[in-house]
């Protein structure tokens, strides 16, 4: 049995580190016994990105016909919250403050999933995001579709009205940012350095007018939306905020790439042209 001990914290890095440890424990138990019991009874709080990475792992096991049992949270509010968000296998019911876990494969239309999420957010959250959210999600989905060689991926969103904060999370099981760089002969010192290079504009794209998507996304989030961006890929983990650019190496972190964006709705309409990089 794998007991999930997740910190009751609003710190994304702390929670994801806890999730990764527990997920590695799941892999070890399955390797030894070919099955696993996941005990979530002690959970008291999970951030959207933690819900996504855990749900994605459980969904992957079900898809691979691994025998897995789940002990639900003892706390009724936590259990109901997870059910509402479609944990663990995805949900169809969209709410006024959330877009449930939605899985898609390499054979699905990624843009259809992303556009549905964007349309839902526009209807439910009356704000001045402008085209910012559309750009961010479109760029991330393009990167997954073109570069990751993924077989399955997932996306979800949750809005916290009292804090006026929106969390957007997306995960894939692809080859990761560092591995993609290795395939294309791009040098980097470690996995964190690879993520930093990607966020600064280094790209494997061939077209002259591409390659600045992640760096533009970073500027939109940090400067336009006064938010934070967290990127986990293979053994690299980076937290990018207004004053920090924190990097940490983690063993056996994320098999593909997990990105979480957190920001508040701006008071004035957001013009993304002030933050995107244009090339000639």
Q: Helicity range of the residues?
A: 25-40%
CATH architecture of the largest domain: 2-Layer Sandwich
The low-confidence parts are none
CATH C-level label of the largest domain: Alpha Beta
Describe the secondary-structure layout.
Layout: E1 2-3, H1 12-33, E2 35-39, H2 48-63, E3 67-71, H3 76-84, E4 98-105, H4 110-124, H5 132-147, E5 152-160, E6 165-172, H6 177-183, H7 191-199, H8 213-224, E7 228-240, E8 245-264
Parallel strand pairs: 1-2, 2-3
Antiparallel strand pairs: 4-5, 5-6, 6-8, 7-8
Describe this structure in words.
- The protein is of the alpha/beta class.
- The chain folds into 2 domains: 1-86; 90-280, 2-Layer Sandwich (Heat Shock Protein 90), CATH 3.30.565.10.
- Helix content is 38%, strand content 25%.
- The protein has helices at residues 12-33, 48-63, 76-84, 110-124, 132-147, 177-183, 191-199, 213-224; strands at residues 2-3, 35-39, 67-71, 98-105, 152-160, 165-172, 228-240, 245-264.
- The strands form 2 sheets. It has a 5-stranded antiparallel β-sheet, sandwiched between helices. A 3-stranded parallel β-sheet has the order 1-2-3.
- Strand 1, helix 1 and strand 2 form a beta-alpha-beta unit.
- Helix 1 packs parallel to helix 2 (48-63) and helix 5 runs antiparallel to helix 8.
- The N and C termini lie far apart (56 Å).
């Amino acid at each position: 049995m794998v007991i999930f001990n997740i910190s009751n914290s609003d710190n994304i890095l702390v929670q994801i580190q806890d999730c990764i440890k527990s997920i590695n424990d799941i892999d070890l138990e399955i390797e030894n016994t070919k099955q696993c019991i996941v005990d979530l009874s002690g959970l008291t709080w999970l951030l959207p990105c933690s819900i996504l990475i855990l749900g994605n792992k459980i969904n992957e096991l079900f898809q691979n016909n691994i025998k897995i049992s789940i002990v639900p949270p003892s706390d009724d509010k936590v259990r109901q919250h997870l059910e509402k968000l479609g944990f663990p296998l995805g949900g169809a019911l969209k709410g006024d403050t959330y877009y449930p876990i939605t899985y898609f494969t390499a054979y699905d239309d990624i843009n259809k999933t992303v556009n549905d999420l964007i349309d839902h957010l526009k209807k439910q959250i009356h704000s001045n995001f402008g085209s910012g959210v559309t750009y961010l999600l479109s760029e991330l989905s393009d990167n997954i579709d073109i570069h990751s060689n993924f077989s399955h991926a997932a996306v979800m969103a949750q809005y916290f009205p009292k804090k006026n904060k929106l969390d957007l999370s997306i995960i894939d099981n692809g080859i990761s940012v560092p591995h993609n760089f290795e395939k294309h002969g791009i040098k980097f010192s470690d996995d964190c350095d690879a993520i930093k290079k990607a966020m600064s504009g280094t790209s494997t794209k061939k077209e002259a007018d591409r390659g600045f998507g992640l760096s533009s996304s970073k500027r939109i989030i940090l400067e336009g939306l006064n938010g934070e961006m967290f990127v986990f890929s293979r053994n690299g983990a980076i937290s990018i905020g207004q004053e920090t650019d924190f990097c940490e190496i983690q063993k056996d972190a994320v098999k593909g790439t997990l990105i979480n964006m957190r920001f508040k709705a701006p008071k004035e309409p957001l013009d993304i042209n002030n933050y995107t990089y244009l090339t000639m």
